[in-house]
Structures are given as structure tokens and as C-alpha cells.
């Protein structure tokens, strides 16, 4: 998952999995509570790009 080899780097695989689950759970709760304002896939992509410093242009 995400280019991480769980056998080669189990700790990195563990934390990537935890991050992914936390993000997914948060988005699901937002969608269930207020789907009108929940972030779209594009919103999440753009937010992640902004965090990691990828150019949005």
C-alpha cells in the first residue's frame, strides 16, 4: 500500500495504515453528519498536495 513493503519496513507500513484509517474514518463521519459540506475527493487531493508542498498549478 502506497509503495510501502510491509515485510521490508513493517513499522512504516503500520503507521501508513493507521494514518489511512484515521483519514478515512474522519471523512466518513463528516459525510454522515453533514454530507453537503464534507470534502470531495478533489478537496482531499488538493489539501494533501498543499501539505506536502506539491504545486497545485
Measured as a percent range, the helix fraction is: 55-70%
Mean pLDDT: 88
Order of helices and strands, N to C? HH
Describe the sheet with the most strands.
none
Q: How many distinct beta strands?
A: 0
What is the count of DSSP helices, taking H or I runs of 4+ residues? 2
Which structural class should the secondary elements be placed in? mainly alpha
Poorly predicted regions are none
Shape: flat
Question: How large, in whole angstroms, is the Cα Rg?
Answer: 14 Å
Cα distance spanning the termini: 27 Å
**Beta-strand percentage range:** under 5%
Please provide a written account of the structure:
By secondary structure, the protein is mainly α. Helix content is 63%, strand content 0%. The longest helix is centred in the middle third of the chain and has 24 residues. It is flat and about 40 Å long.
Structural topology:
Blueprint: H1 10-33, H2 41-52
Any key phrases for this structure?
mainly alpha, 63% helix
In short:
The chain is mostly helical. It has helices at 10-33, 41-52.
Amino acid at each position: 500500500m502506497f509503495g510501502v513493503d510491509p515485510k521490508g519496513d513493517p513499522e512504516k507500513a503500520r503507521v501508513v495504515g493507521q494514518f489511512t484509517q484515521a483519514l478515512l474514518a474522519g471523512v466518513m463521519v463528516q459525510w454522515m453528519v453533514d454530507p453537503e459540506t464534507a470534502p470531495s475527493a478533489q478537496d482531499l487531493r488538493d489539501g494533501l498536495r498543499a501539505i506536502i508542498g506539491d504545486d497545485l498549478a
